[in-house]
Design a protein that fits this description.
- The chain is about 50% helix and about 10% strand.
- By secondary structure, the protein is α+β, with helices and mostly antiparallel strands.
- It has two domains: about 260 residues, no CATH class; about 160 residues, no CATH class.
- The strands form four sheets. A five-stranded antiparallel beta sheet has the order 6-9-10-11-12.
- A hairpin with a 2-residue loop joins strand 11 and strand 12.
- Helix 6 runs parallel beside helix 9, helix 14 packs parallel to helix 15 and helix 18 crosses helix 19.
- The longest helix is centred in the N-terminal third of the chain and has 23 residues.
- The protein binds zinc ion.
- Zinc ion binds next to helix 15.
- The site of zinc ion has 4 residues, from helix 15.
Length: about 475
Amino acid sequence: MNKTTFVLILFALLFSPLSRVYVQENKKPLWPNLANELWKINKGSYNKWPPNSAGEYFGSTAYTYEEYEDFWRHFLAQTPQITWGIRSYVSYALYYWFSPEARKNSSAGSCIPALEMIENFTEKGPAEMSRILLEHHKQDLQNFDLYFYLVSSCVRAAAENQNIHLRNVVVPRLRALVKKHDFLSPVAQNDKKKFPLLNTYRSAIYNIMAEAERENPELAKELGFPAPHENIWRKYRVIISDNNGLMPRAFEIIDGIFHHIPTDMHQLRLITVLEYLDDYRGTYAPYRMINIFKKNEGIHTENGFLKDVPPHHSDQFAIVVVHEINHNVDASWIDSQKQLSDKKKEIIKRAGRRSANYIRDLGDGFFENSPQEFFASISNIYFANTIRTLDLGQERCRKGFRTAMEHALFFVEVYSRGGDAAPTFVLDEHGTLTRGKDLKLKRNKDGDIVEVQAPNKKFFFTWSHGKLATCMSL
Ligand SMILES: [Zn+2]
């Protein structure tokens, strides 16, 4: 080698991106070092905190977006069997642990590579896709769950004003994907027996689109959704994924319910009807989605009231929709406000194991073991018949079960949004939800509700140290 060649090679090395990794910053490249760490994480066998040695990379701010993108492209393509361990670890490492600066590039860099995995997979066509999805499902592999998680999380981060450029890349590519493949079209009725999990896969794609394009009222129209689906999107920014299985009446019922729930109280983006999809629960569980049952709307009715008051029968399909939406109100509205969320925990704790202390009877210990069912359960009766819910609370209170009334009042409190009025509803046997005259509320200096004026009666309450002391109605 002559001197000139040597100098040229030296310069080439010094100014190549690779040399910057090794020479200037003296950091280990992500590939394959980080991949080796991730591959060590076997199913469920890692400690969540402290993170394993993969944390040395994810916790560092030394890596650029491009380096992470390159890493993820290699890692996803070369990890054919992603276990729950990796799936779970990655979600913590990219979105919870470490500083926002460290997470910024590791998470954003995963977005396009994960999208590419989805795009490449979709090219295989329905038969091969179903075969692979089913195989993965049987082996409990988490590949697609991870790909969808990475893209949807990155799109959510974009919506929260980071990485806006990524959203601008992801949105047209997802649209192109849906336009290119007929089986991804919203009007395609894919045979769920012949192509298991294909409809669920399509729902996962819609979920990302709903998140990415929630500001766009025209999305459903532009994609060619049927009119009832389009209507729900335009009004509430929720996609209904039912493989065209729901009856038109079901959409009227859903519309009627959403109409009475302020859109800022939930963050729903997707409603699936698994019976029309594949009934593989928990598969690619996307964010901000609920599942409803088909239940032949307008045929079955349900009375959720305890025997202390006369029954009120409502359409069961509608009750399920109300219940599931209120799960989301619970998670996104209540749990984001410390005061409400603390209050909820406190009143469950106070009621304890005994089912008689609750305004719904689902057996001893039920709400203690499943506190996530508490609020949604009360919605079953509050939306069925609000005044009767208060009557029931009053009746239970009179019999010595004061906490039951606390539960009813908590629901009033949530839907009052801290104000001096709360809505009243009646849900009939055909699924029609009617809003009545508002409850008028009076509070004490601590904010506890001391008077509820309903159209034909008044309820009065006294409180002692934040606990309901007396109930009376006139
Ligand atoms: Zn529930």
